[in-house]
Amino acid sequence: MRWGLIGASNIASAHMIGAFRSFEGDEVVSVLSGDADRARAFADKNGIAAAHTDLDEMLADPAVDAVYISTTNEKHFPQAMAAIAAGKHVLCEKPLAMNVADAVTMVRAAKEAGLVFATNHHLRNAGSHLAIRDLIRAGRIGRVQSLRVFHAVFLPPHLQGWRIDNPAAGGGVIADIVVHDADTVRFHLDENPAEVVAMTAETGLGKGVEDNVMSVWSMPSGVQVFAHESFTHRLSGTGIEIHGTEGAIFAKGVMTQRPVGDIELRTDAGSEAISFPDHNLYIRGVGLFRDAVAGRGAPAADGVDGICSLAVANAVAEAAQTGRRVAVDYGGI
For residue 304, with 0-12 CB atoms within 10 Å meaning exposed, 13-18 middle and 19 or more buried, which class applies? Predict the structure, then answer.
């Protein structure tokens, strides 16, 4: 597969280019940035032949089979629609768009065009989360009663930029982290949040956007979910706890881009450390995307998954702004 990068981003250079090139014969053939100097410097640094500032020019290249979109959030929708119109498969960063209606439009357009569309939700590719899901499905903790996800971290300076001061570009901790946690909760519970309540805070790092949020979600099954996301917690660690009628899962250090962390299963029989594979999350996700393009299976997180995670995040934002309990609107999917 031959990839075009829409966005000369940190995640592309740190994680995705290596994942694309890990498959024999696959290559990254071009990169797009709104700044010509940045595009050329990024291409030179990462061994990419073509550097573009014009999206149509990039998409007109028959050498590009698929695109990876990692620009700021407000650009995802028009760029994805252009790629779909050009007949390119799409792997898009989260959130898919600024609103659910646009996300639904892009996902439906790809389906109508017969193209693979996927959301780059990396956590569901982690060995840790695959192991957690297996424990739940095997009934090791009985019927799930509640879930707590804590994803309060310190956003490193090189990633701050628009995330902490640009609401028009989709900045703020809700768009950046709540979407990942929404997808992870859906992955483990196999259901979509129905209603949410939330409160946000701006503690000084965020300038015009929230840098902390706490929310409670109700699931159709009756499971309650508590979520805490932050850009400002240096030493809190991350993790997820899932409590059931017959046991509980305590996973620490697993809300990350790396294949690390610890999982403990607690039941009346005692405590058990759960092992899990340490494969690269992004390579697994790219591999499933490639298989889907070849007609074998589906992406790890498809477009509908991206719509749902965005819908939950937007409901959290609305609940925090209005002080009301908000029903999650999934755009009719």
Answer: middle
In the chain, the amino acid numbered 54 is D
Q: Which residue has the tokens 């990462």?
A: 46
pLDDT digits (tens, 9 = 90+) for 164-183: 888 888 889 999 999 999 99
For residues 140 and 239, membership in a common domain is answered with yes
Of 254, 256, 255, 274, the C-alpha closest to 264 is: 274
Q: What is the DSSP letter of 175?
A: I
What is the distance between the alpha carbons of residues 82 and 67, in angstroms, rounded to a whole number? 11
CA-to-CA dists, residue 144 to 39, 191, 254, angstroms: 48, 12, 20
Nearest Cα residue to 144 out of 194, 189, 191: 189
Range of the domain at 212: 123-278+310-327
In a domain, 105, yes or no: yes
26-84: pLDDT as tens digits: 999 999 999 999 999 999 999 999 999 999 999 999 999 999 999 999 999 999 999 99
Same domain flag for 130 and 86: no
